[in-house]
Amino acid sequence: MSVKVEKLDGNMVKLTIECSAEDFEGALNTAYLKNRGKITLPGFRKGKAPRYMIEQQYGVGVFYEDAANELIPDAYEKALQDDACKDLEIVSRPEVGVEQIEKGKPFIFTCEMALKPEVELGKYKAFRIAKKKAEVSDEEVDAELNRIREQNSRTVTVEDRPVQANDIAVIDFEGFVDGVAFEGGKGENHELVIGSHSFIDTFEDQLIGKNIGEETEVNVTFPKEYQAENLAGKAAMFKVKINAIKVKELPELNDEFAEEVSDFENLADYKKDITEKLAEKKQADLDNTRKNEILKKAVENAKMDIPAAMIEDQAKELVNNYAQRLQMQGLSIDMYMKYTGQTLESMTEQFKDEAKNRIQNSLVLEAIAKEEKIEVSDEDMDQEFEKMAKMYQMTADKVKELLGDEEKKSIRKDLAAQKALDLITK
Predict the structure, then answer these.
(1) Best label site of 43, 161, 220, 383, fewest CB within 10 Å?
(2) Measured distance CA(2)–CA(187) in Å, rounded
(3) Whole-number pLDDT of residue 113
(4) Model's pTM, two decimal places?
C-alpha cells in the first residue's frame, strides 16, 4: 500500500491511497463469499454459483462496490499511520472518492479531510467587563415556590359543573375535513388542559361550558404553515365528547408544605434556602455570560481559517446530541422532523453557526493555553475523576478504569481550556 499526501486550500488535505491488485482481489473474493447466498443462477443451487459465472452473468463489476467497502476502512486507518501522515491533525471525517477500480489492477481511492487550522492570537487579556452581583426578587422566589407546588399538586375529578379555563378535559375526538376523517385526527380519553393552546385555533375555547357526557362539534382552521401539508390552511370539524373534567389542586403554602418537600421545618427557612439557591444560579449565569463576552472578544481578535468540512462535522454532532435529548423525552428524531417539517440536512444547516462558534472558542482557548504554557496536573485530573464519580455514583478508580486514553486526553484538554478561560476572565 502506498500513500500520497497533497495539501489543498482552506486547510484541507487529500490522501491518494493505492492498494495492491492482490489486496483488491482478496476483497473481491470476500465480497463474493458474503453475497453468493443471495444470488441464484440457472443450474446452480442458491449460494453455490461460482464467482466467475456470476461475473459473467451480472458483469465483472458486480462485486466492486462491496469490495471497495471492504478495503477502504482498513486502508484508510493504515494510511494515517504512514510516515507521510504522522504530522497531520485531521478534524473531519474523510470524503471518499474512487480513482481506479478494475479487476487485476491496484485499487486507488482518495480521501479529503479538514486539517486543524492554525490560530493567530490577537489581544486576549485585560478586557474590562465589570462583574455583576446577582439579586433575587420576591416575585422570583414566589414563582419558584409555585413551580414546586405544581410539582406536588394532585389531580381530582369534578362532576357538578361544566368545563372551565385551566381544567383538564378528558375527551374523545375525531376530526373531519370536507366530511372525511383524516389520519392522526382521532383520539380517546385524551387529557387536554384548557388554555394550554396545545390544540389548534380555538379548539379549547369551544369546550368551555360543556358538561360531562356532552357531545359537541368544534370548528377550527388549520394554520397555513401546518406541518401536515394536506391539512394546512383547511377548515376542519371535530366531533368531541367530554368524558370527564379534572382540576389540579395545589398544596397550601405553609410550614407543613415546607416540611414535606424539603429538609426544613418551616416555610421561612425554606424560602431563605430557595432565595440562596436562586441567587447562586443567577450568579453562575451572570459569570458565564461575562466569560462568554470576554471569550467572544478574544475570538474576534484572533485569525483562523476554519474548513467547511470541520464545521459540517461539528454541526452533525450537535444534531446527534439534540436527537439524543429528544429520545430521552420519548420523541424520536424521525417523529420530530415529521412534526416540524424539517430534514437532517436543514437541521444540520441550522446548527452551523453554533458549530462554528464552538470550534472558534475551542481553538482560541487551546492556543491561549499553549501560549501561556498552562499545564493540567495529575491532581487536577484526579479532582475531575472525583466529580465524575459522584455524578455517576461510582468510585474514582472505577471511572479511571472505564476511561480510555483518548477520553483522558480529551478531559485534560478540556481542563486546560477551562484554565485558559479562567485566566483571561479573572
Answers:
(1) 43
(2) 63
(3) 95
(4) 0.74
Per DSSP, the residues of 209-251 read: TPPTT-EEEEEEE--TT-SSTTTTT-EEEEEEEEEEEEEEEPP
Q: Which CATH architecture has domain 154-249?
A: Roll (3.10)
How is the chain split into domains, by residue range?
Answer: 2-114, 120-152+258-305, 154-249, 308-425
3-state secondary structure of 126: coil
Instruction: Name the CATH superfamily for 2-114.
Output: Trigger factor ribosome-binding domain (3.30.70.1050)
Strands (E), 91-195: 95-100, 107-114, 154-158, 168-177, 180-193
Helices (H) and strands (E) in the chain, counts: 13, 9
Rounded to an integer, the average pLDDT of 369-392 is 94
Q: Which CATH number fits domain 308-425: 2.60.120.1440, 1.10.3120.10, 1.10.10.10, 3.40.50.300?
A: 1.10.3120.10
Residue 65 near residue 35 (C-beta atoms within 8 A): no
Tell me which H or E stretch contains 19. strand 12-19
Burial class for 373, CB neighbours closer than 10 Å (0-12, 13-18, 19+): exposed
Q: Is the dihedral of CA 162, 164, 167, 169 positive or negative?
A: positive
The 10s digit of each residue's pLDDT in 278-289 is: 999 999 999 999
Q: Looking up cell 388549520, which residue turns up? A: 222
Confidence category of residue 341, pLDDT binned at 50, 70, 90: confident
Identify the pLDDT of residue 79: 94
Q: In this structure, are residues 246 and 153 in contact, taking their beta carbons and an 8 Å threshold?
A: no
